[in-house]
């Protein structure tokens, strides 16, 4: 997907897509089930699949602070014109996958779209207002499965507002603009990776175990090559190799709204049966015809500023080593870069910034 969006800002939630596909795998059979299992590396045992899902969506122990919270949502909308849901779907939806169920009449597309968008807006604290419209809901729509991830957290140590100034940002080697850039000097986990062609800074959030990793290509026009190399290197390994250093960090404020149909991307990854007549999605007791997916849209919003990050996806103790490597590090984000919001279990949001 990054190749197709090389000239525009990108933000996706791998976790949102992964959890949606994991749930679909539990109500699929045959070739489709095999493709999903391979793509997601799922165990054959359905109980273990459910445990994998629950691990991915496990919330921090302290998740009640409105400024430091993460909220997941799953909802299956179905049209009873096509019959009743299978008993195992009803049983597992809420018990194992925290998925709400609601009957809607897709013959009334405007009313159905309003109901779906209202739920999404509520789950994402109004960051995402519209995920579907009446035109996208067809008269033969049988069901619609929606997944949402809302993330909001303050930085462990906020950037001071008075330190934010306009600084140069190079869109490419020949074009420079001025952007609002935050400034701080603190201890951060930092690393320089020759094999990646980038330097990396990890900024902790107050929300337990969450960080933003910023991957800055060493060359102004090096984003595409770094993204290519990043597909071959584990983010966990990169994080493991970071060291605590004293860093002067200059990082632009940014906000991204991104929406895309992800069917082509998933097909390129080997998931084809979900979108054709090989699909075997079984949610109704007596389906009149095979069920397949004809739309799969992904929409994200992320806002990064001095206070922290809000995205629609316990204090993080600062660990100071007994000895800190000598030398002040300067980390100036003044050209296109990659960002990753993650914890030790999963990647919640990631993308790149190429323009303002």
From TrEMBL:
Top-level taxon: Eukaryota
InterPro entries the UniProt entry points to: Serpin_CS, Serpin_dom, Serpin_fam, Serpin_sf, Serpin_sf_1, Serpin_sf_2
Gene3D superfamilies: Alpha-1-antitrypsin, domain 1, Antithrombin, subunit I, domain 2
Domain Serpin positions: 1-356
SMART domains: SERPIN
UniProtKB keywords: Protease inhibitor, Serine protease inhibitor
A GO molecular-function descriptor: serine-type endopeptidase inhibitor activity
Record-stated family: Belongs to the serpin family.
Protein name: Serpin (Serine protease inhibitor)
Organism expressing this protein natively: Musca domestica
